[in-house]
Amino acid sequence: MNVLKLEDVTVRYGATTGVNRLSLEVHEGELVTLIGANGAGKSTTLRAINGLEPLAHGCIRMDGHVVSGASPAQIIDRGISHCPEGRRVFPQLTVRENLEMGAYRRIDRQRVRDDMERMFDKFPRLRERVQQVAGTLSGGEQQMLAIARALMSRPRLVMFDEPSLGLAPNIVEQIFSLIQEIRREGTTVLMVEQNAYAALAMCDRGYLLENGHIVSQGTSAEMRANPEIRRAYLGG
Ligand code: ATP
After folding, report:
1. Whose CA is nearest to atom 30 of ligand 1?
2. Using a 6 Å CB cutoff, which residues line ligand 1?
3. Whether the Cβ atoms of residue 133 and residue 183 lie closer than 8 Å to each other
4. How do residues 75-101 score in pLDDT, each as one tens digit?
5. What residue owns the CA closest to ligand 1's atom 20?
6. Residue 65 exposed, middle or buried by CB count within 10 Å (0-12, 13-18, 19+)
7. Which residue owns the Cα nearest ligand 1 atom 2?
8. How close is the Cα of 18 to the center of ligand 1, in Å?
9. What is the pLDDT of residues 168-190, one digit of tens each?
């Protein structure tokens, strides 16, 4: 059963095309990755799903219901959450306040507090820094905060945009294993990554984007065995 389905989605920025007639789907419980070079349209795809970019053409459905045209807040209410590129934590707010922002659409305040405790169990570093303003956290800590914040809306589908960007290799490993853990716990994941090697190793299925268009798709094994992907994205 697919949770998310994009059909023929086109996003334009004036005369530039961000994505062009892009179709993809994500099934319940899957970890799906979207790979591609700089400017291929990966972030645009996530921003379109998230209600941040209007579609020039096509349709996005969640659980069979059309969600294209909905506002970012309505998309959160539908169960989709976004961990944006560059983390985008609120630098002047504390760790606790950032997490509260992730739950701003929720009215079940006691459960929000319980979820915050669960986040602190999952990310002990954040518990230690709960009153620290986010702008003074290290890059890896900010990424953990951005992930925890994205989970605070209790999403069914969480989207990660370049979670490894700018982080040291040992932190990248931690972040990738956290993402796998999130999936194991039952949340569906759509992840954009430039690190094609790691992304294809951990996903169930992958899509390759070039110039705003899907040019290849398959299971993790199929993608890794594809000669063109090996040559262009996996270093031979
Ligand atoms: P990167 O990894 O570099 O972020 P990407 O695959 O995420 O690349 P996008 O950021 O989605 O690619 O960009 C797709 C295309 O849309 C590019 O040609 C880009 O220049 C263009 N684009 C993206 N955002 C805007 C914008 N706000 N205004 C104009 N053009 C844009």
Report:
1. 13
2. 13, 16, 18, 36, 38-44, 194
3. no
4. 999 999 999 887 789 999 999 999 999
5. 39
6. exposed
7. 38
8. 6
9. 888 899 899 999 999 999 999 99
* Residue 55 neighbours by CB under 8 Å, 6+ apart: 9, 10, 11, 48, 68, 69
**Do 74 and 23 form a contact (C-beta atoms < 8 A)?**
no
Distance from the CA of 115 to the center of ligand 1, in angstroms?
A: 34
What class has domain 2-233? alpha beta
Q: If you measure from the C-alpha of residue 41 to the centroid of ligand 1, how many angstroms do you get, rounded to a whole number?
A: 6
CA–centroid distance, residue 29 to ligand 1 (Å): 28
**β 188-193/157-161 pair status:** parallel
210 near 200, Cβ under 8 Å?
A: no
Taking the model in full, what pTM does it have? 0.93
Residue with tokens 């800590």: 141
